[in-house]
């Protein structure tokens, strides 16, 4: 499902964890990226999502939060008996269940999440070789990790890898910080530094013949092999160019990506309104089996 190119004015949606104020990148001397569009007949003026980009689509899925119902006290037949005052244990049992740890994650993955992180974007792939995944937003509270919105997403064409390489058509497995955003469209009101630039223009078609236009209307840079605190367009690769880069969260366009995670445009907008640098947000991403390690 391709992103719409028309952008009528609309009221901003409420963020799952509150409204956000806008900040803006000022990046003097930023040069356009001179990368040839050699993959999938792309006509791209930048690189992102695994260096040269491909497409993504929606895959419906859902998650539920369990609620424990306290049973009513019953009296003798034909009589009315008042309910006893709830004890602290009763109150706890009737509250919405909030997991103490992020569900579906094993000890190795949990150990990689910074202790100061209070927002997590959890991306769980359907399978090691699948391009489809689910995204759930979590925030840390005094009771545990509270789930927010759940969205369908796409990842790379060939699924997931622990050893991402440039052009391998896999998304990297791991825990990565989220510090910087940008896009072709104006800042919708995020607290993250936001770089609006025409260099987020993309053309061509994806793996399933879907148009890629609009895929970079909104992006959040995933800090895999990049310099945090810079525009997503920054080309710095601390691990070397062979390890790839340009891995982003971005707008879904109806097919698998080359390495990024993609969401419907309205969900990307919600995500931008949710992420707060003061909450030290991170993304935890990988196939379900790998995340259980």
Mind explaining what this structure looks like?
The chain is mostly beta strands and 293 residues long. Helix content is 9%, strand content 19%. It has four helices and twelve strands. A five-stranded mixed sheet has the order 3-2-1-12-6. A five-stranded mixed sheet has the order 8-7-9-10-11. A hairpin with a 4-residue loop joins β2 and β3 (145-154). The chain is globular. Mean pLDDT is 78; it is low at 1-46, 53-83 and 86-95.
Describe the SSE topology.
Blueprint: H1 88-94, H2 107-112, E1 119-125, E2 132-140, E3 145-154, E4 160-161, E5 171-172, E6 174-177, E7 180-183, E8 194-196, E9 219-221, E10 248-251, E11 261-263, H3 265-274, E12 282-287, H4 288-291
Parallel strand pairs: 1-12, 4-5, 7-8, 10-11
Antiparallel strand pairs: 1-2, 2-3, 6-12, 7-9, 9-10
Attribute tags:
single chain; 4 helices; globular; mainly beta; 293 residues; five-stranded mixed beta sheet
Question: What is the structure about, briefly put?
Answer:
The protein is mainly beta and 293 residues long.
- Total strands: the figure is 12
Number of helices: 4
Order the strands across the largest sheet as they lie in space.
3-2-1-12-6
Radius of gyration: 21 Å
User: What spatial form do the alpha-carbon principal axes imply?
Assistant: globular
Note poorly predicted spans. Answer: 1-46, 53-83, 86-95
């Amino acid at each position: 499902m391709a992103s719409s190119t028309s952008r009528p004015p609309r009221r901003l949606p409420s963020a799952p964890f509150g409204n956000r104020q806008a900040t803006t990148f000022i990046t003097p001397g930023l040069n356009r990226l001179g990368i040839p569009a050699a993959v999938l007949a792309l006509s791209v003026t930048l690189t992102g999502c695994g260096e040269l980009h491909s497409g993504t689509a929606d895959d419906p899925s859902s998650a539920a939060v369990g609620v424990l119902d306290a049973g009513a006290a019953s009296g003798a037949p034909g009589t009315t008996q008042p309910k006893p005052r709830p004890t602290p244990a009763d109150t706890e049992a009737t509250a919405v269940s909030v997991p103490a740890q992020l569900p579906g994650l094993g000890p190795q993955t949990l150990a990689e999440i910074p202790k100061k992180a209070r927002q997590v974007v959890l991306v769980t792939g359907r399978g090691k070789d699948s391009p489809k995944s689910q995204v759930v937003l979590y925030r840390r509270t005094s009771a545990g990790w509270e789930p927010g919105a759940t969205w369908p997403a796409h990842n790379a064409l060939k699924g997931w890898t622990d050893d991402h390489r440039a052009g391998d058509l896999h998304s990297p497995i791991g825990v990565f910080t989220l510090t910087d955003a940008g896009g072709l469209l104006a800042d919708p009101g995020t607290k993250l530094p936001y770089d609006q630039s025409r260099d987020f223009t993309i053309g061509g078609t994806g793996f399933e013949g879907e148009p890629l236009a609009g895929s970079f209307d909104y992006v959040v840079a995933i800090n895999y092999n990049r310099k945090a605190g810079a525009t997503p367009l920054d080309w710095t690769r601390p691990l070397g160019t062979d390890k790839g880069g340009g891995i982003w969260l971005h707008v879904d366009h109806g097919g698998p990506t080359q390495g990024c995670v993609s969401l419907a445009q309205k969900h990307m907008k919600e995500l931008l309104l949710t992420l707060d640098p003061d909450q030290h947000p991170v993304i935890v991403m990988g196939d379900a089996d790998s995340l259980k390690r």
